[in-house]
Predict the 3D structure of the following.
Amino acid sequence: MLSKYSTQTMPKLHLAQFVAPTGERSTETTNKIAAELIAQLKAPPHWLVLVTEQNPIDLDMIVNILTTIGQCDATTVGKLPRISKTKIRVDSQQSARQGKVTRYSRTPDALPLHTDCSNKAVPPNLVAFAMERPDPQGGGESVILSAADLVHELPADLVSLLRQPVFPFVGEKKYPILQGQGDDLRIRYYRNQIDSALGEQCILSDQLREALDELERYLALSQRSVRFALQPGEVLIMDNQRVLHGRSAMPADSPRLMHRFRLSAPALSKHRDCATSIS
Ligand SMILES: O=C(O)CCC(=O)C(=O)O
Ligand SMILES: [Fe+2]
């Protein structure tokens, strides 16, 4: 059962709080927006929607804000973070490519709850989706579930199985699905990625396969996952190590267009005040 967030309770940050939609954006303003986003992303539920009220959305501004977040750390200040940028839209050629788990983004299909880049040694912790053109028929809604909320719903024996560093996502490497405690609970999960690794001779015991099937059932029935339609100019921003995301299906000819950004933002995983390093 998915709950629909009402507009009142959605974690949102309005750009207008910082600057008028057409107003000048100074470095100081960008720094303030970045600092506020970091503060919000570090706290539960570790995701939010940035409302720009721009149509079309100013992608350079989004990149600027994300770059600032990526630099907001003693180890990264002054260095340009590598930001991966991808257009997400139905693309039958791309989605026909065999073997690539990422091709699912370009199908019109629903995407189950997952972590982006779950096969990477360290998945990027900052993932953002900027909505340019929603599906006019209401398809392609976003779905979010935080690891902390998920763990509340799971039985303790399943949680301890998921904490074992035994799950294959790629090649020989094995990772836990859940790690860290309390405030620092992190998740790495993409069933398609695990199935793809298992198809390449990786081995998983029956007990662990059953644990994954049980997890899938909890994910599908979660009372705490939330689903909402991003509007043009809205940007869903999340800590990809602390929340899972997915989307509902859309028509095969949907003109939906969103822009995906991924980067590593060390500031999100540290207990320090960012304002000092970007002022
Ligand atoms: O289309 C969406 O809303 C999400 C796509 C997605 O999860 C991805 O491309 O990683
Ligand atoms: Fe994704």
